[in-house]
């Protein structure tokens, strides 16, 4: 019996984990064998949010019916949260067995340009990258280690945010620094690659093939935010660099900043590396500028002028980066909005379009307001020369597909 039929027979679960600084997002899929290729069925989608404070454990099934909606006791840490989650999965899905786990891993460095099976050597390499992704990498590794403790024989697979950008040319990834630093890996990598890869994979199914294969710019606007220039389905350039601090200002991250600011913080303010890291990753972005919130929905509803200033800065930087990515592509056929803000915040899409009218971008105000981000929608007006769309992303499905493909090839 081959691996797929065994997986189907056992009603095997593919567990997808996206462990972040304050949440563990998870999805469960089963696989169905068809004549052409295996089909993945989502059976559960949930998260443990608010880790470190009061955890909210929420999950729905494939038909969006609530399976659990529970506030857990204070003080539960990441490992305990994962233990509770796995216990819940084994109780709730007692007919199924977890046969493989796929992890989102933010930084793959120079080593990983495709998904890999996680072993001791991989974990050692991923640990080396912790300073380059302090908000994400420690939690990914903690989840891998905890899962191994519970299921020593479970195959675990790492899928990287950086991998999709390995098609970027040297011209794009190089910084103007001494060659020795470049050769030790100090270069632009780019992130949110699983999201961009998913969007690239669905483009031909939602829009005209010529546009889908043309020059496309995707704005992934979530708590972390970046933009990517894609041509013929491949990443050409993106706004993030060596780390996920670069590019757009984010919910709590500063985005692009003059390195002279970091020197100033060290030399004039006597701040340590840890203090600066904390400042740039946690106290900047929308939260730092607004002093109100890191959450775009809250900022849009706020009457505080500093909230408006933060939103204006976010939109202005998106429009500036859009111009830069158009230059990288030598033109633009389509602009796609995705992730939490891109999918749901119509006013942000409208403001970005208004600043980008010079490119031939124009969206229909009513269509934009009506688009709820739950399915792809074309927003451009009749006069627009660039197609503007909102397309919901699905990083977890991408991880499940990679995980299943690699698992079946073992
Ligand atoms: N209806 C909405 N209007 C405005 N912003 C929204 C809306 N829904 C979600 N968001 C924003 O999306 C952001 C979270 O995006 P998401 O992609 O879920 O983040 P993460 O990177 O944690 O996955 C938050 O700033 C949130 O306020
Ligand atoms: C890479 C990154 O910024 O990820 P997230 O949006 O999940 O914070
Ligand atoms: Mg995200």
The CATH architecture of the largest domain: 2-Layer Sandwich
CATH topology of the largest domain: Nucleotidyltransferase, domain 5
Strand line-up across the major sheet: 5-4-3-2-1-6-8-7
Shape: globular
Cα(first) to Cα(last) distance is: 14 Å
Compute the number of strand runs: 14
Give a structural overview:
This protein is α/β, with parallel strands linked by helices. The chain has helices at 3-9, 78-92, 120-128, 137-150, 170-173, 179-183, 193-206, 209-212, 259-267, 273-282, 285-290, 296-301, 305-329, 339-344, 346-355, 365-370, 395-409, and strands at residues 13-19, 23-32, 39-49, 56-60, 66-71, 98-105, 116-117, 155-160, 215-221, 225-231, 234-238, 334-338, 377-378, 387-390. α2 crosses α4 and α7 crosses α17. The protein is globular. The site of acetylphosphate (UVW) has 9 residues, from loops. Acetylphosphate (UVW) binds next to loops.
Q: How would the blueprint of this fold be written?
A:
Layout (H helix, E strand, L loop, with lengths): L2 H7 L3 E7 L3 E10 L6 E11 L6 E5 L5 E6 L6 H15 L5 E8 L10 E2 L2 H9 L8 H14 L4 E6 L9 H4 L5 H5 L9 H14 L2 H4 L2 E7 L3 E7 L2 E5 L20 H9 L5 H10 L2 H6 L5 H6 L3 H25 L4 E5 H6 L1 H10 L9 H6 L6 E2 L8 E4 L4 H15 L1
Parallel strand pairs: 1-6, 6-8, 9-12, 12-14
Antiparallel strand pairs: 1-2, 2-3, 3-4, 4-5, 7-8, 9-10, 10-11, 13-14
Helix pairs in contact: 2-4, 7-17, 13-15
The structure holds adenosine-5'-diphosphate, acetylphosphate and magnesium ion.
Function: Catalyzes the formation of acetyl phosphate from acetate and ATP. Can also catalyze the reverse reaction.
InterPro entries: Ac/propionate_kinase, Aliphatic_acid_kin_short-chain, Aliphatic_acid_kinase_CS, ATPase_NBD
Enzyme class: transferase
């Amino acid at each position: 019996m081959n691996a797929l039929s065994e997986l189907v027979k056992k009603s095997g679960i593919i567990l997808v984990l996206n462990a972040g600084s304050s949440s563990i997002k998870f999805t469960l899929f089963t696989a169905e064998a068809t004549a052409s290729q295996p089909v993945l069925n989502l059976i559960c989608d949930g998260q443990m949010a608010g880790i470190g404070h009061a955890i909210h454990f929420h999950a729905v099934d494939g038909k969006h019916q609530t399976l659990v909606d529970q506030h857990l006791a204070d003080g539960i840490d990441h490992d305990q949260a994962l233990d509770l989650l796995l216990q819940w999965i084994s109780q709730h899905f007692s007919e199924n067995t977890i046969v493989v786990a796929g992890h989102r891993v933010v930084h793959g460095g120079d080593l990983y340009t495709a998904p890999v099976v996680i072993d001791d050597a991989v974990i050692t390499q991923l640990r080396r990258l912790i300073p380059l992704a302090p908000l994400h990498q420690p939690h990914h590794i903690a989840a891998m280690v905890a899962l191994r403790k519970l299921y020593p024989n479970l195959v675990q697979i790492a899928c990287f945010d950086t991998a999709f950008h390995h098609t970027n040319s040297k011209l794009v990834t190089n910084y103007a620094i001494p060659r020795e630093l470049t050769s030790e890996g100090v270069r632009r990598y780019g992130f949110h690659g699983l999201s961009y890869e998913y969007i690239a994979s669905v483009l031909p199914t939602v829009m005209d093939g010529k546009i889908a294969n043309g020059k496309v710019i995707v704005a992934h606007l979530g708590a972390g935010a970046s933009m990517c220039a894609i041509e013929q389905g491949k990443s050409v350039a993106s706004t993030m660099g060596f780390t996920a601090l670069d590019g757009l200002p984010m919910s709590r991250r500063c985005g692009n900043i003059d390195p002279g600011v970091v020197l100033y913080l060290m030399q004039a303010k006597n701040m340590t590396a840890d203090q600066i890291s904390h400042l740039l990753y946690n106290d900047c972005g929308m939260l730092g500028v607004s002093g109100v919130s890191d959450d775009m929905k809250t900022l849009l509803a706020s009457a505080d002028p500093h909230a408006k200033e933060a939103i204006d800065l976010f939109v202005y930087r998106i429009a500036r980066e859009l111009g830069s990515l158009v230059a990288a592509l030598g033109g633009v056929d389509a602009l796609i909005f995705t992730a939490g803000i891109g999918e749901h915040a119509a006013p942000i899409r409208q403001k970005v379009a208004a600043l980008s009218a010079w490119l031939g971008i124009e969206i229909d105000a009513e269509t934009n307001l009506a688009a709820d981000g739950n399915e792809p929608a074309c927003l451009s007006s009749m006069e627009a020369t660039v197609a503007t769309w909102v397309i919901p992303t699905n990083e977890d499905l991408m991880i499940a597909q990679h995980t299943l493909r690699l698992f079946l090839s073992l």
